[in-house]
Amino acid sequence: MKDTKPFPVLKNDNLLRAARGEVVDRVPVWVMRQAGRYLPEFQELRKQHDFFTVCRTPELACEVTMQPLRRFDLDASIIFSDILVIPQALGLTVEMHAGVGPVLPQPINTPEDLKRLTPDGALSRLTYVGDAITMMRHKLEGRVPLIGFTGAPWTLMGYMIEGGGSKTMSKAKAWLSDHPEDTKLFLNLLTDAIVDYLEMQVKAGAQMLQVFESSAEHLTKEDFLLWAVPYLRRIRDELVDRLTKKAVPLVPITLFAKGAGHSLKEQSELGYDVIGLDWTVDPIEARALVGPNITLQGNLDPQDMYRDADELRALTTEMVHKFGKSRYIANLGHGITPQTPITSMDVLVEAVHKAL
Known about the structure:
Elements: H1 14-20, H2 40-48, H3 51-56, H4 58-71, E1 77-78, H5 85-89, E2 95-97, E3 101-103, H6 127-140, E4 146-151, H7 153-162, H8 170-178, H9 180-204, E5 208-213, H10 221-227, H11 229-245, E6 253-257, H12 264-268, E7 274-276, H13 283-290, E8 295-300, H14 309-323, E9 328-332, H15 342-355
Helix pairs in contact: 4-6, 6-9, 7-8, 7-9, 9-11, 14-15
């Protein structure tokens, strides 16, 4: 049964204030993959439960979402899930293999295989994410905002064609030239599912959203503008239109296109409230490109988390000084890596909060 109690009042809203360009008490900080393998308590839970069982069981997803908040003075939580729940909902098997990552044993090899996808009713197969979001909002007791997320169309298409992660995305990229019309059909089908999914997350209680275009790095600027940007624009525009028509309050949306530092100006024109930067982008150059009215998020190199405390503190402080206190959310430039020392998270969070 859905929890219909009103959500607790938000106590620390610095994340949302930063996303809207309002004054913050302190620079907000959270970390991509903050609930994950670097935490021993996550490893313990995973010994008892399969990865996707955790995603599909709201109580377990909430427990994992809460784990980093018990340890660190973070300014946001992000619901524990995976970008590949959408391919699952569209009928593909996705397995998580130890030491390998996600594996899709029956990938989309040819345009003919698109007929195997089941977009009808896909949203009904994702209700567990909405249930976890609603449950988490109550468990948080207003401590920090809750972020929901999705993979972006090109990134999801890549996994679905490659059958998992890929260092080259060569099969997926071949589709762009060999099957351009079918690629458009595929990307539009994914976009439709994503808009439905994000709308559900907002209605369930997500206070902010992030769209992960994690495989943007495999595209040239020309291909990024052709095969990623139109669908990223559609996601934002259609979601805002739908929520507005239904009188559902809008939430800030972040776009994180890893490896698309070549197109920051174009990203800034898509209507997203926040642009996430990977660690290769200079904050001062990024600000010059996106202008003053968009919030930036990022972008410490995850590898810097392996440095000693003094070095890490200095690098973090320097980063925050470059971005400044206005319209800025501190984060890493990609997800935290599994061997990261836990003490580095303490150093990072404290250094961000004390930098300005």
